[in-house]
Amino acid sequence: MEAILRHRLTKRCKIPRNVPKLGWEQAPRRSSSGSSSGCCRNERASILKRTMAKGEEVSNKQIILRDYVSGFPKESDMALKTSTMRLKVPEGSKGVLVKNLYLSCDPYMRSRMRKPGALSYIDSFTPGSAIIGYGVAKVLDSGHPDFKEGDLIWGMTGWEEYSLIPETEALFKIHYTDVPLSYYTGILGMPGVTAYVGFYEICSPKKGEYVFISAASGAVGQLVGQFAKLMGCYVVGSAGTNEKVDLLKNKFGFDEAFNYKEENNLDAALKRYFPEGIDIYFENVGGKMLDAVLLNMRLHGRIAVCGMISQYNLDQLEGVHNLFSLISKRIRMEGFIIFEYYHLYPKFLDLVWQYIKEGKIVYVEDKAEGLESGPAALIGLYTGSNVGKQVVVVARE
Amino acid sequence: MEAILRHRLTKRCKIPRNVPKLGWEQAPRRSSSGSSSGCCRNERASILKRTMAKGEEVSNKQIILRDYVSGFPKESDMALKTSTMRLKVPEGSKGVLVKNLYLSCDPYMRSRMRKPGALSYIDSFTPGSAIIGYGVAKVLDSGHPDFKEGDLIWGMTGWEEYSLIPETEALFKIHYTDVPLSYYTGILGMPGVTAYVGFYEICSPKKGEYVFISAASGAVGQLVGQFAKLMGCYVVGSAGTNEKVDLLKNKFGFDEAFNYKEENNLDAALKRYFPEGIDIYFENVGGKMLDAVLLNMRLHGRIAVCGMISQYNLDQLEGVHNLFSLISKRIRMEGFIIFEYYHLYPKFLDLVWQYIKEGKIVYVEDKAEGLESGPAALIGLYTGSNVGKQVVVVARE
Question: A331 lies in which domain range?
Fold first, then answer.
């Protein structure tokens, strides 16, 4: 991480700036009917070959949000649209023009599909415009002195083949390329640093403590569990299929794991795995699981509230009844959002990259091929159909 | 506070010892029928006169819990009972024999009336034995070198005229007697140090912040509000009668106050008083108020969870729906119990005693006369019939 980038990263406790408006929110120069039929394979290959021709106007497939979503999102809430994009940063712009390689499907994106409201911490998507999310991309043209053609970056980009990113403050240059580039949508990107901050900064973990992680096989959960094991904690995870439970125990090295869908009584399940209670709960799901966890926390327990995916598609959120435990067990429960902690990214990156190289940490991705597969992949997060970190492969280079 | 006492006080983050078993939990030597009829005034005066006769066996009125309580407690859940007590510490005991002067009615006592269960942080009362609570008392006999006849103390004692307290670790000697002794059940006792710790230690307050306090005219709330005003915060309190609202605004100097029973929409009420949101919520009530507060917290807000009195008499606790705010607003919500912070008592005492002497802090008590009035006074907490700190006067000296 270069100094010039680092000093611009948002510090904790500062009110974060809004996510910058990106080029793809401007009206497309030409658009298709919005149908979901894509171009044929040959045509696509031909476009890819031509991307190096700076300044050329090319076809640019995008996944747009049709309209704000309430209830459970459907594939048809999104659509494939084809615009054009000139592969050059406009005169005077300090932005970058990138070719998107890997796009990240993250649970928080559900809140950006919602009509703007008080509870949301991030701007809603603009209906009719491309979805915005974390991704890995290659710089094709740059108006900024810190970026040059050929640089690899990760950060907020568009769900489209090419993006003009007018402000580069929220972009990270990729230096370690001896790992799969897609890792920068997950273990070495936003979910990775989320796991790192949530566990080390919010949970205040100590060796030997009892750690429970919900949605444990996801991008964040799998890493939290491995951090906790490396610290010498007892670690249990919950997930929604037996395949994921198997992954947790046999791939990620959790001490125990269970399929919450097969448990009639979550309180009883937690008591089975934590007869002495839970010191640390890494909260990814909310609702009934949180209620059961509250009954099983130990004195001075800590709950890092990272996400509540079980609640994202409900119009009426579930009530949590056992908050008196916060008093009786003197629990600290703390929510956090990663964009206030990116100043810790360089420290995180060096640690986790090293862990990966040494084989101390493993990582499982679920790759959907092609931009067209994006809507189904994103929606799959909320039914739990992904196994490991869900990535959309737009292009491999 | 003497050094020998101070070093024994429970430190934060240590698992606290159990509240010591007290003498009144032993079988009484003689008991009445358990009816609520007390002795006549002359007889009582006669007993009081005789208390100085060390070693004498005297009649000892007690308020006992008849049986565990579910739902809303009633006066008839308690009973007046008359035992006898020898006014001397047993041979070899390191305890003290005290005459109780003032007894404290505190919301947490409801949980001690409940059948022992997982969620409680403190032992239940023993049915048939005297209720236990904070009080102010005078030492009549002592087996401990740190206490002598005539010393005034506050701490855990029995709801009875005389108590044998076998362990003195949880007792505080009273040194400042230029304030009403009853203050040591409130502003200079457990509720006072609760307000101090909750506000200064848990809420991490800063000058100019927006502070909301529920049950604000109670023993803890009135002091939290005054601490916050002294720090230069904007302070709003809620209470359940217009008389209390008037007290908050005109006696305790809150900026604003409202009667929550007259508000159809707590969210709207909070938005009226906090158009820019709440930085600090001092939580005394739980339930619907907490849910409304969560919708009105500011970024990086803090919630000190001190009590949830609205929930104590419910068999099924209310669900809290807006916990996603913990993430979207990056809120820290933390429960605490005062017995882990008594090491801060000396610092607190010097500060607040000084504030009282300087007239910077005022205090309102609601005194019920006579041990017999205890059950009604205690139950009154849960209907909000007390105005200010509820004290039971057993004897004035």
Answer: 191-339
- For position B235, which CATH number holds? 3.40.50.720
Tokens 């950060």 correspond to A155
Is residue A24 a part of any domain in this protein?
A: yes
Q: How far is the C-alpha of B159 from the C-alpha of B377, rounded, in Å?
A: 12
Q: Check CB contact of B277 with chain A, cutoff 8 Å.
A: no
Let me know whether A109 and A206 are in one domain. no
Q: Tell me whether A354 touches chain B (CB under 8 Å).
A: no
A229 and A116 both lie in a single domain: no
- Which residue is closest to A291 within chain B, CA to CA? B319
Q: Residue B13: closest CA among chain A residues belongs to which residue?
A: A300
Q: Tell me how far apart the alpha carbons of residues A55 and A205 are, in angstroms, rounded to a whole number.
A: 52
The amino acid present at B360, given as its one-letter code, is K
Q: Is A309 found in the same domain as A284?
A: yes
* Interchain CB contacts (distance < 8 Å): A and B: 116
Specify which residues A153 forms β-bridges with: A137, A173
Residues A370 and A251 both lie in one domain:
no
Residues B269 and B371 grouped into a single domain: no
Q: Is A220 on the interface with B (CB under 8 A)?
A: no
Cβ-defined contact of B119 to A324 (cutoff 8 Å): yes
Residue B350 located in a structural domain: no
Best mutation site among A303, A323, A333 for testing chain B: the one with the most B CBs within 10 Å? A323
Whether B156 and B203 map to the same domain: the answer is no
Q: What is the domain count for chain B?
A: 2
Interchain CB contact of A130 with B (< 8 Å): no
Enumerate the residues of chain A whose CB falls inside 8 A of the CB of residue B286: 323-324
Establish if A347 belongs to a structural domain.
no
Cα A139-A144-A150 angle, rounded to 5 deg = 20
Output the CA–CA distances (angstroms, integers) from residue B168 to A319, B53, B97, B192, in the order listed.
43, 22, 10, 21
Q: Which two tokens stand for residue B149?
A: 């006849």
Using a CB-CB cut-off of 8 Å, the residues of chain B touching A321 are 316-320
DSSP state of A199: I
CA A173 – CA A152 distance, rounded (Å): 6
B153 and B238 part of one domain: no
Question: Hey, is A353 helix, strand or coil?
Answer: helix
* CB spacing of B334 vs A326 below 8 angstroms: yes
Q: Do B178 and B306 belong together in one domain? A: no
- The dihedral over CA atoms of B107, B112, B115, B121, expressed in degrees to the nearest 10, equals 90
Q: Identify whether A357 is part of a domain.
A: no
> Where residue B38 sits, what CATH number does that domain have?
3.90.180.10
Whether residue A72 lies within 8 A of chain B, CB to CB, comes out as no
* Tens digit of each residue's pLDDT, chain B (397 residues): 333 223 333 333 333 333 434 443 333 333 333 333 333 344 444 444 444 567 789 999 999 999 999 889 999 999 999 999 999 999 999 999 999 999 999 999 998 999 987 566 789 999 999 999 999 999 999 999 999 999 999 999 999 999 999 999 989 999 999 999 999 999 999 999 999 999 999 999 999 999 999 999 999 999 999 999 999 999 999 999 999 999 999 999 999 999 999 999 999 999 999 999 999 999 999 999 999 999 999 999 999 999 998 998 888 889 999 999 999 999 999 999 999 999 999 999 999 999 999 999 999 999 999 999 999 999 999 999 999 999 999 999 8
